[in-house]
Specification:
single chain, about 450 residues, mainly alpha, Helicase, Ruva Protein, domain 3, globular
């Protein structure tokens, strides 16, 4: 009896507070130590970020443009682009506080260079504007007023008439190959935030038409394929979690479609979205698939413990974006992704045959309820739109011109896993977590408790 009481008396306490009290370390001292540690992490983060200034990014952009304009060999241009991408990945673009429209920012310039938008044609844009209302004008007006409605910084910088003019002009220019699709308003918003209207028009047009055109078919073929890829990637990277979700009949099309189709623009806050888009524009919008997978894995502790994981993965309750955390976790997942799955991820937004194969798996194995898939407006405020269960079949005629060749000029879709492997990812890890060493072990990461504060 006395032995058991003694063991109980000296056993390790369950709570952190009790443990430190038992060991004789006051809670106040522990709090001060944690605060000191946090400040040191912030200092390291600032030191890493400060190694690259706006001027440094300007110089990298100029190198790319100079190489392109001088007719340099493709491999030389690609070398300069690789340097720019690495700078975006490791350092992140400098913050630019804005209260009103100020034309092309450093972020806007970097985005234009990465997208291959060198010059713009102001006269052509004015001609588009002179055509007045396009055939999709009513649909456009039905969406533009709810573009990032909760973000004051965005609303102060981007005004609804700009969105209307850009999207209306896009339809004039791109129809009949492309028409307005719900969700394009959220894609155009970030461009208008960091560029002048005419720059944003050409960058947005290039982004839509060349980088992920299959997402904008009426059948939502690309986004449907993307949802299937989320399931496949999750199965390859975390079998236990994938099995748990499958057990509860929870496929990505039921919880991730708005996030996939909007390139995560349905998830606040807007400032973090811009940082995430720095990465997606540098390496390709197809990496949004892994960004979604990373966020699901970050919730694995709660998901595995839950008998109702659907409630946790409801896109309206999706965790707020933490761009550097997500990017760092994506880079730790990437080496573990099978090569064939990586190739499908790279191709699903531009290669109609790859997208059809993936979408047919999703459509025929798990047909979503009518009107259940969504091309949500920014920050999850959009309305739900129907998506055909036979996406692959219905898209063939519409996408007849959207062959892989349509995106052959996209440098971002040709990046191989070997190119990432050649990067020193410990730099990214220190920039993201302010601690030296290898990239994080994703199986031990979570956003549930204190870990999101650590990141």
């Amino acid at each position: 009896m006395m032995i058991s009481q003694s063991v109980k008396k000296h056993s390790a306490p369950r709570t952190k507070q009790a443990r430190y009290q038992t060991l004789g370390a006051p809670v106040e001292a522990h709090a001060k130590a944690k605060e000191k540690e946090r400040k040191e992490k912030d200092r390291k983060l600032a030191a890493v970020a400060s190694t690259f200034s706006s001027q440094d990014f300007e110089q990298l952009c100029e190198r790319v443009l100079k190489a392109c304009r001088s007719g340099a060999k493709p491999n030389e241009v690609e070398q300069h682009l690789a340097e720019l991408r690495k700078a975006v990945l490791f350092h992140g673009l400098p913050e630019e506080l804005k209260t009103e429209k100020k034309g092309l920012t450093i972020r806007g310039k970097v985005w234009k260079v990465l997208l291959g938008v060198d010059g713009v044609n102001g006269e052509e844009y004015m001609e588009m504007l002179s055509r007045k209302q396009c055939t999709q004008y009513v649909k456009i007006r039905g969406d533009t007023f709810r573009t990032f409605p909760q973000d004051e910084q965005f609303k102060q910088s981007v005004h609804e008439p700009e969105l209307i003019r850009l999207l209306n002009s896009f339809v004039h220019l791109a129809a009949p190959e492309f028409n307005y699709c719900q969700g394009m308003n959220a894609i155009s918003g970030p461009f208008l935030y960091c560029m002048s209207e005419v720059d944003a028009f050409y960058a947005f047009t290039k982004f839509i038409r060349q980088k992920f055109p299959l997402y904008w078919l009426s059948s939502h073929l690309g986004a449907s394929a993307g949802c299937e890829l989320v399931d496949l990637c999750l199965s390859a990277l975390d079998k236990d979690l994938a099995s748990h979700l499958t057990k509860h009949n929870l496929k990505a099309v039921l919880y991730a479609f708005p996030i996939i189709s909007s390139l995560s623009s349905s998830v606040p806050p807007f400032g973090e979205l811009m940082k995430l888009w720095d990465f997606l524009i540098a390496f390709g919008p197809h990496f949004n698939i892994l960004c979604v997978v990373a966020q699901v894995i970050s919730l694995r502790k709660s998901l595995l413990a839950s008998s109702n994981p659907k409630g946790i993965l409801d896109y309206r309750k999706w965790p707020k974006l933490k761009a550097r955390f997500i990017i760092s976790l994506v880079m730790s997942l990437l080496p573990k992704l099978p090569a064939d799955l990586y190739d499908q991820m790279c191709q699903h937004a531009t290669d109609i045959q790859v997208a059809q194969r993936l979408a047919s798996r999703e459509a025929y194995h798990h047909q979503p309820p009518a009107n259940s898939t969504s091309t949500t407006n920014a920050n999850g405020s959009g309305k739900v739109a129907s998506s055909s269960s036979s996406a692959a079949a219905s898209s063939s005629a519409t996408a007849s011109s959207l062959t892989p060749a349509a995106s052959s000029s996209s440098a971002m879709t040709t990046i191989s896993p070997a190119a990432f492997a050649s990067m020193d990812l410990s730099t990214l890890s220190s920039a993201s977590s302010a601690s030296a060493g290898a990239t994080p072990d994703f199986m031990n990461l979570t956003l549930d408790d204190d870990d999101d504060e650590e990141w």
